[in-house]
Amino acid sequence: MSPQPDAMREAARADLIAAIEELGYPGEFGEVIASQLGGEWSLRRMTSYLRGANPHSPEEIADEMLAILQMRERYVEQKISEHANASITAFYNRERDETDEL
């Protein structure tokens, strides 16, 4: 049985906070960053950045957090646009009677 999504998110959150503490910053800073990121994917992405880039200031960490949030926002907007496009395409391609108007 695979772990529940909430459990996976909480594990990702704890891992992010631990990574921030490993860099010498207080856990509270990690909690603030984690609360802004929210989702498991964002939390894991941030943790990967922290462990790979070894940022030298809290500003670098905050900048990466904002970049991840923008990336997530673009992804959501893209999915909304794709859904709308698929819906309108399905509407235009539907079967019509001779009496239907466009």
User: What is the count of helical runs?
Assistant: 4
Shape: elongated
Radius of gyration: 21 Å
Number of domains: 1
Reading the helices and strands in chain order gives HHHH
Give the assembly state of these chains: single chain
Number of strands: 0
Roughly what is the average pLDDT, rounded to an integer? 92
- Helix percentage: over 70%
Q: Which secondary-structure class do the elements indicate?
A: mainly alpha
Largest sheet entry: none
Would you identify the regions where 5 or more consecutive residues have pLDDT less than 50? none
Distance between the termini: 51 Å
Residues in β-strands, percent: under 5%
Report on the structure:
The chain is an all-alpha fold. The protein has one domain (5-92). It contains 4 helices and no strands. The protein has helices at 5-22, 27-37, 40-53, 58-92. Helix 1 (5-22) packs parallel to helix 3 (40-53) and helix 3 packs antiparallel against helix 4 (58-92).
Features:
single chain, 4 helices, 0% strand, 102 residues, mainly alpha
In short:
The chain has helices spanning 5-22, 27-37, 40-53, 58-92. It is an all-alpha fold and 102 residues long.
What topology emerges from the helices and strands here?
Blueprint: H1 5-22, H2 27-37, H3 40-53, H4 58-92
